[in-house]
């Protein structure tokens, strides 16, 4: 066993004593293919009878999409009226008496990408619209300067092809009614003072006279919030203007609202005895009372659609944010069993709420333009849940194989590889969390952000989150600008659209400020799964260090005070997580009789519902927490609605169904990639190479010719200087286990 003195995120502490070898992974994303295994033990790419017609439907949708040429990315309106279901505003219950002035600013809970005009209209049109609104506002404040004259000057100076006349701006033609609905909604949300008008398929914008009149009666901020409230069209929702002690003025507001919106709303004045003010409350009328339902049908049935997602070189959350924006739903409407690697080709199951299978198929080709491919689209009765999977299957290529020292023939490398792989097949590997858990190559890793959150240092956590990397990539430029200026709005304009988490945080920081309260609101703007990721990352780092300490101090046997699975004699221990009732503390007698093996030992993940080992490892946990100032931590972050009960993680993990093959040549692994690509495209399970992996049965290929090693004598073929061997590996891992950590045990170095 070897161990570095300074413990990194993944300590160098191993189970087996073989020599290992050097090599590189992820030279191409297709060198690292991950396929999810569902709870029934089936790979998610396995076709079912219900998938066949769905695949043909997707194919039929593609030609029309391709024939359209380059189009803007549009967030389509859901068939059940997206304005009512997917982009609601937070409103008060009409049954409770409103408090004057309480909701002078209505908070949107919708995905802000639903209203992102740069995504819906394109950057060029969005900039023209912003210039138009700026000139319109300037003209309103300076009546002597005509808008038409300024627009004409602007049009001639920038060569715009948009038609501008009579203080109007054309946004272009949108043949699809869902596209038009999204444009109308997004423009009204961002610019409530504009009126959108459709002429056949063309959409034009101009100043809204109703807004102009209302802003003369109330503040401009109230007028904007009221227009957004009207546009939600949510029956029984309520909006309350600020307190107004002038009865004459309130009467004027009542008359205007009744005259202009009388069919949609009803208004009433309420008095607040404590604040001694009176305010106008507006309620959207019901369109008609729904008929009574039976008790068992009292809740409207939700629509859930399952599908298999294939992505390449994208984060799972990045792909979800993009799909949510296009479909016009919240990122939280997508559920999944686990997050997959970014730099890889990955296949996983997902379920989206509120979207029908037909609607999802219609957008399949649009998704493909962003490298997101859907298959096996079907209706299901419920969402997915995190951890609801058996594991993952991996098809990997390790390239540029070289021995650590002193071996210069292919047969000697064959022996090194064979010994290493066979050791891991039998003994397994230390079940560390992989480096991607903490953010590979980042200036500030996720566990440091998690530590700040556990200490409830919200401002520090935000600044750590926005720590830029070295270089001038757009994301780093935006982060650096925010840290230097504290200007969230400007940083948001610089942040790439694909960075969903950063954009959600910046929107909240712009709205609520960058102080402690604003930073808390910024963290709350993220879905729960994103928020809890950071404290979990800190817990994962502590677990990694605890595992290395346990092996270094207590060795490779189950010792007194260790925590183990309660089931005795169990051989097929899964490397997932278990709950408290299944945990047992090893006694002195059980240690002497070797009742439990090292494979049954578990270590706790930090939390408020776990017990710690009753040996020196338990004391180590307490010392480790004290070093970070968490000696009295309850693992609850109440302001962020986070609770970490903790769990248990097996010390060791073992790969299943492991096969391997050594190939010689620059094109090594291409046949496997082609085979995987064809099988995945057709929905078939990737096939394991049928290679004999017993001693003396290791296959290598050179120049397209397969050469079988027989284990007798030594090969005299030296390594070609420019043509190093590659290793193909295929295996399954239980959920929450990392292939990169398995490779570290095989290679005895970071791949």
UniProtKB/TrEMBL annotation:
Residues 667-677 have a biased composition (Basic and acidic residues). The keyword Ribonucleoprotein does not apply. Residues 428-654 form the TRUD domain. Signal peptide: none annotated. GO terms for biological process: mRNA processing; pseudouridine synthesis. The keyword Isomerase applies. It catalyses: a uridine in mRNA = a pseudouridine in mRNA. This is Pseudouridylate synthase PUS7L.
